[in-house]
From TrEMBL, chains A, B:
Gene3D superfamilies: 3.30.1120.10, Alkaline Phosphatase, subunit A. Its cofactor is Ca(2+). It comes from the Bacteria. This is Arylsulfatase A. PANTHER family: ARYLSULFATASE FAMILY MEMBER, ARYLSULFATASE G. The keyword Calcium applies. Belongs to the sulfatase family. GO terms for molecular function: arylsulfatase activity; metal ion binding. Residues 28-385 form the Sulfatase N-terminal domain. Keywords: Calcium, Hydrolase, Metal-binding, Signal. The keyword Membrane does not apply.
Amino acid sequence: MKQRRKELVFILLITLLFNMPGYAQQKPNVIVFLVDDMGWQDTSLPFWTQTTPLNKRYHTPNMERLAKEGMKFTNAYATPVCTPTRISLISGMNAAHHKVTNWTSPQNNVSSDNNDEQFSPAPWNYSGLSPKTGIPNTIYATPYPQLLKEAGYFTIHVGKAHWASIGSPGANPYNLGFMVNIGGHAAGHPQSYYGQDFYGNKPGKNTLQSVPDLEEYYGTETFLTEALTLEALKTLEAPIKNKQPFYLNMAHYAIHTPIQADERFYQKYIAAGLAPVEAKYASLIEGMDKSLGDIMDYLKAKKADQNTIIIFMSDNGGLSLAPPRAGTAHTQNLPLKAGKGSVNEGGIREPMIVKWPGVTKPAAVANQYVIVEDFFPTILEMAGIKNYKTHQKIDGKSFVPILNNANYTDNQRALYWHFPNKWIPEDGPGINYKSAVRQGDWKLIYNMRDGSTELYNLKEDIGEQKNEAAAYPEKAKALAAKLGTQLKEWEAPMPVVKATGKVVAMPGLTGN
Amino acid sequence: MKQRRKELVFILLITLLFNMPGYAQQKPNVIVFLVDDMGWQDTSLPFWTQTTPLNKRYHTPNMERLAKEGMKFTNAYATPVCTPTRISLISGMNAAHHKVTNWTSPQNNVSSDNNDEQFSPAPWNYSGLSPKTGIPNTIYATPYPQLLKEAGYFTIHVGKAHWASIGSPGANPYNLGFMVNIGGHAAGHPQSYYGQDFYGNKPGKNTLQSVPDLEEYYGTETFLTEALTLEALKTLEAPIKNKQPFYLNMAHYAIHTPIQADERFYQKYIAAGLAPVEAKYASLIEGMDKSLGDIMDYLKAKKADQNTIIIFMSDNGGLSLAPPRAGTAHTQNLPLKAGKGSVNEGGIREPMIVKWPGVTKPAAVANQYVIVEDFFPTILEMAGIKNYKTHQKIDGKSFVPILNNANYTDNQRALYWHFPNKWIPEDGPGINYKSAVRQGDWKLIYNMRDGSTELYNLKEDIGEQKNEAAAYPEKAKALAAKLGTQLKEWEAPMPVVKATGKVVAMPGLTGN
């Protein structure tokens, strides 16, 4: 009887304990630090096997610090442009599947595709993501911040949103599971990074790119990157104090165009001999890196660093059009080929770092390839959220096993890219009307214009210079079929040949 | 020994219990539903002893409903214009004390005062409220949302903020203790209530009054009042689910100019024979009233109504300038004299209703006078927050005793108004350069232009038509001295006589 009572008291205590705020606190905080348009080499942290001239040009001490404390991913991928990446991230779906394959215009129901002589546009979802069904030209999906919020997380978005067009629910981060939104809306870049310009809100001067919510800094010299960081840190005060787990989507507008000087760092790069536009670009990078450091410092000062996961990522490759970049076009991400907008590595391979205290080992390096839709199941797994319901089928795969073991290897998994759009008026390397697949070290690119394919061995040829399609026809055929089969399963949008009215064939399925 | 152990287990259980989320839930939610520029008679709910023609003109069924469920205050006061009221509310200070005596320009360090032939401007705090020290032309004070936040409340601001000018910290509700801000900034009115106008954000058409954060509704027919209500309800979802107490500052832009038709209600008032501008005005009121009803319905549906206090208030009297109002100027708040901008009752007496489930009795009516700085100590008392520290000395007095007892009476307390500013180019009744005091049924108005005073008995003469100063010289003298003594204690700003360079004398102190 006495034993029985002891047991009851024990059960009661345990029950109470698991309902206490302190227990909820055990859930880790998660910060996704998402940079815009940052290339794989736009950092002093080498992601390749060698230190490159670009690594020497840029100064990102806080990325180095984060990599020292966590795990560097050398083969992390996004999509060629921003909205598809942001929607893959938040929905867990591949771009070919969610069909928001190009960037969304802030204007409602306007496709951002350029006109093309050969093709009529593919039926892509040019109005973006929707948390509700029945919104034209959108993908209806459940964003993971909604699941985090339902699980008790304090969910915060700061910075660039760009998930959907104005006049649609996805334009509003409050509809995507966020409890706080500062500065995020339908636009994909800021009108201005300068407080002196009111970030684009001077009376009579606004555009759809004017950044909202920052009047405190109007007329001051506060650079947009700094203003967003200061605002983000304010939002963390309450959840840390209340021991409520938080999710912070720290989505910088930097380093997207307009390429404006962050004056805190600009002169140093001019002194180093860079062309003005490149000095501005480098200053945008270092300003972003300072933000990362400020957040890490804040967490440490608040004693929240040991319970906070930081995931650093970019949304697509560095811009390689010249102008606005200096130098020869498509050399800005060397050794990678091309840049933003391309399915070549320069357009899709990203600097990614993950620090999960107690899980990732310091200075770990993972070479396993991952892709941005993997963030969805990973973050929910980190938060201990299981058996969740989503409207969409999730394509991503949790990379928690990699975080547990940097040597984790899976050469059978295939990653897919699909860009049936005309991003810029003139085609470039890997740019406009391309699909791609990577499996192991092999990557195949499909050109919708003529059905041709390119095959590269990324281990031997990271620069995608040597097309091995003729040398390895069976490999090319197999990968093309794999790509085509997957695109068909996802019912990926394809452009239409104007001359025939026929939809462009998917690779490998009709004998291309 | 056995008894001892029982005690220990009991203490342990109690300790655990008080740390559980369920315990925190016992703190009531608080909603301040603040309307802009709504007069005491701008409602179908009679606040006077009689039902007036204006009560018959307007339709506010949800105010009637709230009054049926809670307590109506017939003698509730604000200040003559909006910013002073908003700062008194959030700081607990009288306007003469915080010295933000007129509305703040959204532009930094710009006084909104009109030029005057007789006077140079009083040294008022024309940049507004600051949560930090050392900001020029601001009052440094601790806002109560900060104290609520620190006590674990989820603090939300939706709608008009207007606490400080751009480029200053007070322009940003995130610096004033709010964890969420939707639509609030430095501006005092919306550029447009229409979604079709992007609420003033159409490219190239913006002003400092363009309302931020509502891109979801751009191009739709969603009236601003409705958009803000929809956004506010979204913010309540998480705290209700998490059983975290919330504070919602639901601060409508309605019914401030521009007087635009809320099309959901406009035709009905045209059909009733109102002039177009008055039909628009009435539609703004009914749209606001619908918002109140929607919030009440939402709380009920979420079973949160029994734990949520609703305080309905306006920030100053109804606009009585004509144009833009129809009819004869200063007749729009009858039986009250004048309107917005005036220290006469039409400028300062407000429709106020408080529903505190379990405390206020249904359909209760309180005739005790209260003033907007009373909200500060009242709300903190409602939230059970004691011994809080503020930078400022609080002038307000909790009205919780009134909520407990509608018959509570205090005829000794004095209320003060101070407007040493030039609001409009031509003086009007009670408008420009006036101070006032009310004690019991007596009210004295001091005219800075000539040092004259007016004395009214509000019980007998709510319309302030019969100046009793000559009939009751001792009463007038005593009240003038009381007013002057208090203004002196607060070091209230006074204008300067241009001709002499001398500061205008405070009432009752120098034999005026």
